[in-house]
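Hi R.,

Here's the chain you asked about this morning:
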Amino acid sequence: MFDGVGRRQDATRGLLVNIGQHSLNGYERNVLFRNDGDGTFTDVAFVNGVDRVEDGRGLSIFDYDRDGQLDLLLRNYRQPAQLLHNLGGRGHWIQLRLIGVRSNRDAVGARVRLQTPTRSQTREVSAGSAYLSGQSL
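And the predicted structure, written out as tokens:
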């Protein structure tokens, strides 16, 4: 999924658990789960290099190289940012620019829904989502 390990094109979203602002003991491991598409998740943190004891603080999800695959930027406590570049192959992507009105010029809260004959996807514009990181508007 990331850094060429696994080379799997996931059709559904995965899940990275990042402990956030405070950890229980300062030595918490980040965990990364792949969504198997059947209601279950598989732990893939080790094969993707994110299970180190670096005490995660923030996470940004974005398409670093505009190849249609989501990449992760992980911010760990007292460590440099770590880019998890998804090399799972070329995907499909669309770029939209949403413009709000009046006091909401960035369209925060707007939802975009993409419908195909086999599935639908919905995304919402947000302004911030985690400590030391955020999603692009």
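Residues 96-127 form one domain.

Let me know if you need anything else.
M.
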